[in-house]
Design a protein that fits this description.
The complex is a heterodimer of chains A (about 525) and B (about 100).
Chain A lengths: L5 H19 L2 H4 L3 H6 L7 H10 L5 H12 L12 H5 L3 H8 L4 H8 L2 H38 L3 H49 L3 H10 L21 H12 L10 H11 L3 H32 L6 H4 L2 H9 L4 H37 L5 H25 L4 H25 L5 H24 L8 H22 L5 H11 L6 H9 L9
Chain B lengths: L9 H5 L3 H25 L3 H47 L3
Helix pairs in contact in B: 2-3
């Protein structure tokens, strides 16, 4: 339990006023149109979406996640957080393709890439799935905030869950994405400064880097300082095979769209950038900041490890960074630290609220329910959707009682494994059609539950390691969608040509390109 | 023509070329060096500073390679964006 001095309360109140005020300032811009409420009018310079990428992916549960893997594996554990590196390739491949499509959302992109009934089914499915996922993620980060408030002040979990998300909803409801992006900018700056200050403070408080290194040596844990201390090629807790799987899924996955759940968040930032180049640089630099932040966090978490090396319970050592701060920061700084926690929480909540609302408004209401809606109606539907998602997140949040890492692994990893390759194929292969993509989703939902939960529970197969689960799911689902690709017709050529000329995707698009050249829509390739 | 092309016509920039590949490879390496370099530097381990320095140099190299091409693509695309957006709204409204 921590106790706040007057100055601590002052920090918190000042920060909250700044965050809400910053968001509310853009009320008049946000209400102008659907494009303003969800994409800030597509006119942002690269550094604004970049700070939003960074701020959004710095959530209350993120330091818990990083602490969990670094406490267990040392610096090698940082590779668990490397999934963000899909942006290394995406910034120069899928980001470029997606920005050129101008789709508001990934669901809308499905109807530009595919045609006919299949594309409409996919659009509805992806939109519905994303609304569900946004509520889930909001509940998940919300309950993480509840845990932090419980640790710090002894509050019941629901206060941290509901209180801060509701505060955040004020400016998201009023200003939409304009409020999100402007608040994200100052939240990102505050969060990075706080992470740096608290981390340095924590490392110095336990005696500095040299003390950490010597204590790790005394504990016989010097290998925790080696980022490549794997436990074998296939064996142990952290084998090379897992590292290879992570590298492939992260880096090659950048060619596709949706290979990481973060894609859906980034897609909104990509479309809000004013040019294709701004979109690329925003995604690249925002993610670079995310990786630097993860690396900075490793220092105080190792400091925590040398202080408390024998914590067995995951839920306890996941709080390492928070405990370092609460135990070592002086009065006056605690308020600053807590305000920064609120900042990182609000930046994630605001993004997910507006992101869920764009799928509900653009893909469900506007496209299917009221295609002739006015801009005013669309903005109001955006606000109502935001509110519904907020309430849904409270319900999900109260349902989550297990370890955060378990949910993270399941949501980010297992559920995506079977559609990882289809997410790439839809970008790079003209022949891959909507029925194949839809079938991959259905196959994945069934197979992932079988491999992850049902078959191990029934004792039919052992509990498999993550990398085995990934490759098995990928193989099983391919047995479904590859035959379906060839058993069903290709997409309509007129539709494909239009998409190709607009987006200029890379990969195997030969027949479509030839048709576009024949129609005189693009020049013949020199090579 | 040198290894890296820095002057692009709009039609040339639309194609996927080796500059895109170089950017993707360098970008991935930079991310790895930023992660490892920062973590080690934060603990004042000298190899961390070396790795971080290499990462920063490679980052500038990456921008040197890809920026002219991205700039050309962007400028050309912005000319067409308005008509593309109008078409997008027609699809949205089932027109």
């Amino acid at each position: 339990m921590v106790s706040f001095a007057f100055i601590d309360f002052l920090w918190l109140i000042m920060f909250l006023a700044l965050m809400i005020g910053c968001g509310l300032l853009f009320y008049h811009l946000g209400k102008r149109s659907e494009s303003d409420f969800f994409l800030a009018g597509r006119g942002l310079p690269w550094w604004l979406p970049a700070t939003s990428v960074y701020a959004t992916h710095t959530a209350t549960d993120t330091p818990m996640w990083v602490a969990g893997v670094v406490y267990r594996y040392g610096l090698t554990g940082l590779w668990y957080t490397f999934f963000a590196a899909w942006c290394a390739v995406s910034a120069f491949v899928s980001t470029r393709i997606f920005r050129r499509s101008l789709a508001y959302t990934q669901a809308e992109w499905q109807s530009l890439r595919f045609s006919g009934l299949g594309s409409e089914l996919l659009r509805g499915w992806v939109a519905g799935w994303q609304i569900f996922m946004n509520m889930f993620i909001l509940g998940w980060v919300g309950i993480a905030m509840g845990k932090v408030c419980n640790l710090a002040f002894g509050w019941p979990l629901w206060i941290g869950l509901i209180g801060f998300s509701s505060i955040c909803a004020i400016y998201v409801l009023a200003s939409g994405y304009w409020g999100v992006i402007m608040a994200d900018f100052q939240q990102g700056v505050i969060a990075f400064a706080a992470i740096l200050i608290v981390s340095i403070w924590g490392v110095v408080a336990v005696g500095g880097p040299s003390e950490i290194i010597s204590k790790l040596s005394v504990l016989g844990k010097s290998s925790m300082l080696n980022p490549f201390a794997f436990t074998g090629f296939f064996s142990g807790d952290f084998p090379v095979m897992w590292f290879i799987t992570m590298m492939i899924t992260a880096i090659i996955g950048g060619i596709g769209m949706g290979t990481s759940f973060d894609w859906y968040t980034e897609a909104q930032r990509i479309q809000s950038a004013r040019t294709v180049r701004d979109a690329s640089y925003s995604i690249w630099s925002g993610t670079a900041l995310v990786l630097v932040r993860n690396a900075i966090w490793a220092g105080p978490i190792l400091a925590f490890f040398v202080l408390y090396p024998n914590i067995a319970e995951q839920g306890q050592y996941e709080l390492a960074w928070f405990r370092i701060a609460f135990e070592f920061l002086p009065a006056g700084m605690l308020g600053f630290f807590f305000a920064s926690i609120v900042a990182i929480h609000l930046s994630t909540v605001s993004t997910q609220l507006n992101l869920g609302a764009v799928y509900a408004t653009r893909d469900l209401y506007h496209h299917y329910i009221n295609p002739k809606a006015t801009e005013k109606q669309l903005v109001w539907v955006g606000r109502v959707s935001t509110f519904i998602i907020l309430i849904g997140s409270f319900i999900y949040g109260m349902m989550m009682t297990e370890e955060i890492t378990k949910y993270l692994l399941f949501a980010l990893w297992i559920m995506a494994a079977g559609v990882w390759l289809p997410n790439i194929l839809q970008v790079v292969w003209w022949r891959f059609n909507s029925w194949a993509y839809l079938s991959s989703w259905i196959a994945n939902l069934i197979a992932s539950w079988l491999i992850f939960k049902i078959l191990p529970d029934w004792g039919i197969i052992p509990v498999l390691k993550d990398h085995y689960q990934f490759w098995i799911l990928m193989g099983l689902c391919a047995l479904v969608y590859i035959p379906i690709t060839f058993l069903t017709k290709p997409e309509d050529m007129n539709h494909l040509v239009k998409y190709y000329v607009m987006s200029r995707p890379l990969g195997w698009w030969g027949p479509v390109r030839k048709e576009a050249e024949r129609r005189g829509l693009i020049k013949k390739s020199i090579s | 023509m040198g290894l890296i092309k820095r002057k692009w016509t709009p039609d040339e920039a639309e194609e996927w070329t080796k500059e895109d590949l170089f950017a993707c490879i360098l970008s991935s390496v930079v991310y790895i060096t930023l992660l490892v370099g920062t973590a080690l530097s934060f603990l004042l381990i000298w190899t961390g500073f070396v790795i971080l320095a290499i990462g920063i140099i490679l980052m500038f190299l990456m921008f040197f390679i890809i920026n002219p091409k991205l700039k050309t693509i962007s400028e050309e695309y912005e000319k067409k964006q308005k008509s593309y957006l109008e078409n997008l709204e027609k699809i949205e409204r089932w027109e």
